[in-house]
Task: structure prediction
Amino acid sequence: MARAKRRNSGRVSGSARRGTRNQLKNFVKYGLGGAAVVAVVVLIVFAVASSSGSSGEGSDAPDFSFSLYQGVEEVGFREGNLASLHGGRPIVLNFWAGLCPPCRAEMPQFQAFYEQSKDEIMLLGIDIGPFMNLGSKRDADALLRELGVTYPAGWTSDGSVPRKYGVTAMPTTVFIKSNGEIFRKASGAIDARFLTRVTRELMVAEAAEQGS
Result:
């Protein structure tokens, strides 16, 4: 992992570096933990609570089709489905949106995590903004460019995905074992430290299962 980090350090865009250094400022700016985000989360909860699914830890990750804004070379296709990625690396699946302030705030942290861990983990961001009233595909693509994000990111046209994954807050991140089983789900913005800790726990769990 350390070798991968050194090898990729020269590829970090200026925008991504600035985004990582200003993460705490972004958290304050966009009010994580404050009234602004509470209002956003409440609106999202009301938008999906009536039809929320219960997909959680220990269950199979629901399959869905998606298309990519970027990351075709790494994922292996421009249009495909999640199930086709099972059997390889574990997946960190992040549901985000172009007009979601907490999503914007956490994305530099995901970029830092990606640059450190992409040889061990498949990081995949899926835009569900149109289903959450949080922006269009154009908004999402513009955000990726603005922040200098380079990890694989795309969108889905399947409006049932938020319900299937029980998304009641944005962003939502799902940690998936290589066999397609959900290991953990986190609602709300998270940072690189949390990402690293949970993925290490995931890989330890997988190693233990393979050794038993």
Observations:
- Confidence is low (pLDDT under 50) at residues 1-13, 15-53.
